[in-house]
Amino acid sequence: MFKLNKILSKDTFELCELKLCKVLLMNDQNYPWLILVPKIEGLSEFHLVPSEHQGDLMDDITLASNVLQRVSSPKKLNVAALGNVVSQLHIHIVARFENDATWPGPVWGQIPAEPYPSKVACTLIETLKSEFSSI
Amino acid sequence: MFKLNKILSKDTFELCELKLCKVLLMNDQNYPWLILVPKIEGLSEFHLVPSEHQGDLMDDITLASNVLQRVSSPKKLNVAALGNVVSQLHIHIVARFENDATWPGPVWGQIPAEPYPSKVACTLIETLKSEFSSI
Description:
Two copies of one chain form a homodimer. With about 140 residues, chain A is α+β, with helices and mostly antiparallel strands. Chain A has three helices and five strands, in the order αβββαββα. Chain A has helices spanning about 5-10, 50-70, 120-135, and strands at about 10-15, 20-25, 35-40, 75-80, 90-95. In chain A, strand 1 and strand 2 form a beta hairpin. Chain A has a five-stranded antiparallel β-sheet. The radius of gyration of chain A is 14 Å and the shape is globular. In chain A, helix 2 crosses helix 3 (about 120-135). In chain A, about 35% of the residues lie in helices and about 20% in strands. Chain A has a single domain (about 5-135), classed as HIT-like (HIT family, subunit A, 2-Layer Sandwich). Chains A and B meet through helix 2 and strand 4 of A and helix 2 and strand 4 of B.
């Protein structure tokens, strides 16, 4: 049975569930940053998503990208499945800006995460949930 | 009409073409590293791949990942569409090892690329081409 990895759980807020994936908001106000986790136990590589679920995965990535684009109007979206530290397959969708902390470099392993103040987190979570339910 | 970005062209060797993508080998012996470039002019975001081509993109990523897995037997594959520097949509597929130069960090923007010696490049290119044609 699928169970969300503990590190992913600790570092994020859960937003909603899509066709295949759980949608998380990374608790790091350096970047608007979603993480999609396919609800399939034991999956660790992007190319090992079973073929019958690949369409749903693409749909989920597209939908989450559109939500992040609408909410944050970034210069660029970075989409990545890395998993060198947490092996459970998870897809990062990160909104990037030319004035963000590590542009144009990657976001991983560069600077410490900066947790949202509670009120900011609550407002952003509500905004994102509302976008996901309306799109 | 689709034209490969000049920076991507300069930094890579062309290997073959799949259903949707041109397949390139990054000229950096720090990591076995493929790049897929969808042959659609003006495309810059992963989620903007037209829905009628998304299946082909997933097939190309799966096939290229399987080839890289067979040829290099990595600990992990990193799959990413970033594009902060080169906006033409390109998907990195990087074979990662626990003893590689930047494990478990990302490969982008960390250390300079280390071009392959010509003979090594030729042998690897032949091996990869042979795998792509046999798979």
